Amino acid sequence: MKRREEEEKQRKTTGQSPEEDQRRTSTQSKEEEEAASEQKGASAAADDDDEEAKKKERKCVPGIIYLGHIPPRLRPKHLRNLLSAYGEIGRIFLQPEDRQVRRKKKKSGSRRCDFTEGWVEFRDKRVAKRVALSLHNTPMGTKKRQRFFSDLWNIKYLHRFHWTHLSERLAYEQTVLQQRLRAEVSQAKKETSFYLNNVEKSAHLEHLRKKRQRDGEQVEEKTWDFTQRQTEEEIQKKKKKKKDSITQKRLNKARLMQQESKSNVSLLAKIFNSNQSE
């Protein structure tokens, strides 16, 4: 009721008819509906864009390839330059050579540190699969004058392999190496302590022996009871004697068998001869 009274007052003041008011209200409602529909369309488009972005993020799963051969003087920056042409690259790790190999190289005069194997992470695993299939057993360089043209790619795609697996493996290898070094150090300490204790014992025994000699007591010289290991010639002679004895036994047995057979033949001959005479 109050709204109607207010609307009638406004009509009287403005001098507008009720038909014009209806038209104005209808136009306003249409404009409001159009604005609401536009807002809905914009929100739906934004939701679609967000869903597509989420799908792309879900689909973009990183993939890792394994390099079984790393040529000399190849560094991570060279590897990144070679493989970045095929797709976006994340992390790269190259396994350096063993310490013994590096020590030998230092002794020979070369301070160069080379790598034995490597792992490369691509942002998309589909790209990593394509790279592993297409580049395996192909030259590293595209032109003959390039640095690594004579070397071949040795690539394998690691299925369901994550970078955390590699870090765990490296941590495990590091702990194993530390444990081995600790065991070697402890063994060396035990050997040195055993040697020093024996040296002290021998010095003490020598001091006692000299003291007894000064006092005029009879000192028995200690002799080591041990049997020397047989030489190769003695082992061969022993084997030869054994073989000769075996052959001699066999010959004697064969002679006895011959003699028995002869005696049997003579007996049979006597028996047959006696039968014929009768």
Automatic annotation (TrEMBL):
Compartments, record wording: Nucleus, Nucleolus
Region of interest (Disordered), residue spans: 1-56
Keyword Transmembrane helix carried by entry: no
GO biological process: endonucleolytic cleavage in 5'-ETS of tricistronic rRNA transcript (SSU-rRNA, 5.8S rRNA, LSU-rRNA); endonucleolytic cleavage in ITS1 to separate SSU-rRNA from 5.8S rRNA and LSU-rRNA from tricistronic rRNA transcript (SSU-rRNA, 5.8S rRNA, LSU-rRNA); endonucleolytic cleavage to generate mature 5'-end of SSU-rRNA from (SSU-rRNA, 5.8S rRNA, LSU-rRNA); small-subunit processome assembly
CDD domains cross-referenced by the UniProt entry: RRM_ABT1_like (cd12263)
Main location, first listed in the record: nucleus
Gene Ontology molecular function: RNA binding
UniProt xrefs under Gene3D superfamilies: 3.30.70.330
UniProt feature, compositional bias: Basic and acidic residues: 1-11
Gene Ontology CC terms, in alphabetical order: nucleolus
Keyword Glycosyltransferase included in the entry's annotation: no
Coiled-coil features, chain-numbered ranges: none
Entry keyword set: Nucleus, RNA-binding
Family: Belongs to the ESF2/ABP1 family.
Protein name: Activator of basal transcription 1
Organism: Xiphophorus maculatus (Southern platyfish)
